Amino acid sequence: MTSPHSNAVLPPPYRNALVAVVLLFLLTSAMVWSGHTEAIDRRIGAALGLSAESSPRWLILFMQGVSWFNGGLPRWGIVILLCLLVWHWCGPRCAVALGGASLLANLASSLLKMGFGVARPDIVPHLDHQTSFSYPSGHATSAAVVYLLLAWLAPPRWRGAAWALAAAMILLGGLSRMMLGVHWASDVAGGTFLGAAFALLGAAFVRRGRAA
User: Fold this and answer.
1) Torsion 62-170-122-47 (CA) sign
2) Domain range for 122
3) Burial (0-12, 13-18, 19+ Cβ within 10 Å), 54
4) DSSP structure string for 161-192
5) How many CB atoms are located within 10 Å of the residue 93 CB?
6) Is-contact 18 202, C-beta < 8 A?
7) For 124-170, what is each residue's pLDDT tens digit?
């Protein structure tokens, strides 16, 4: 018998989770817009920011490597490779979901940056390249959408490892941007919620195809 929810645009579990992360993103955005995150952002930035003069060189290089891995051309190279992997796992619809969600999430992040116009942190000298506004973090958005969706699409025997990878990439990616002095904590939080929302849409797209 066909489930009453099989033809729904978003099945209840995905809809509820999507509503939750969208509300968290809107709340974070409202707090950023109103300036309520500035004090805590500055405290966190001062506590985590690395210094080219006093911080261990290996730590700076490690964080720069993590940041490089999650941005620019390397990011899209990884997305292409992961699209091929999930195509092998569960077919072309999974590849379309991962590639499409990644592209749309990063487009949304870029447009929102221009809309909010938040300046980059000025607490410590930047230790990584940056060419745009700050909120929300594109690196955090990308890490969340790519690796959360990868974990949802992974076959059962790889799912535990995929979730561990997702947690590591999201946490390290966000931490690297703050420690390199190029993002506020609120940028990372907003980007993570934004990426998670698009990952949920991608997962629901795949589930809907399977239920059809």
Assistant:
1) negative
2) 12-211
3) exposed
4) HHHHHHHHHHHHHHHHHHHTTS--HHHHHHHH
5) 18
6) no
7) 889 888 878 999 999 999 999 999 999 999 999 999 999 999 999 99
